[in-house]
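Lab notebook: predicted structure, single chain.

Context: the supervisor wants predicted structures on file for every construct in the current expression panel, including those that have not yet been purified. This is the next one on the list. No modifications to the sequence; it matches the entry in the shared construct table.
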Amino acid sequence: MMSNEERLIELQRELEEVKKAIRVILGGAQEYRIGSRTVKKPDLGLLYEERTRLEQEIRSIVDGGGIFRTVYFEGR
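Prediction complete. Output recorded below exactly as produced.
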């Protein structure tokens, strides 16, 4: 099993790749041709969703909360 530190490094690496792909698409390279082959980049909307998911997972690890949080209820 991967430690939180290792997972965080992996997620940050993935996030940088997603951000790079977004920049490439925003720069106008959504689709291009090489000879007879057409190469199409992933949908920008999907990349934004993946960026948000990765940022949330990173924040969860950094905050130490994971998906479970401790809740305290005072008196009745």
